[in-house]
Specification:
The protein is mostly helical and 60 residues long. The chain contains two helices and no strands.
Length: 60
């Protein structure tokens, strides 16, 4: 059985953790985008035909 260099193992572990972190960050961003989109759609469906008005209301 080949035993890998501890420094190489640490580097691989760090790379894997970074990959998982980036995936989680992307998932969070996707969720945030969906929430903003849903909120804007809800505002518009309440009779606000002006999308700009809905966005302004969302951030007010």
């Amino acid at each position: 059985m080949h035993k890998s260099d501890p420094a190489e193992q640490i580097a691989q572990n760090n790379a894997e953790m970074m990959r998982v972190y980036q995936q989680a960050q992307q998932a969070n961003q996707d969720m945030a985008n969906k929430l903003v989109k849903m909120s804007v759609e809800e505002q518009v469906s309440r009779g606000k035909n002006d999308l700009l008005g809905a966005i302004v209301d969302f951030f007010a």
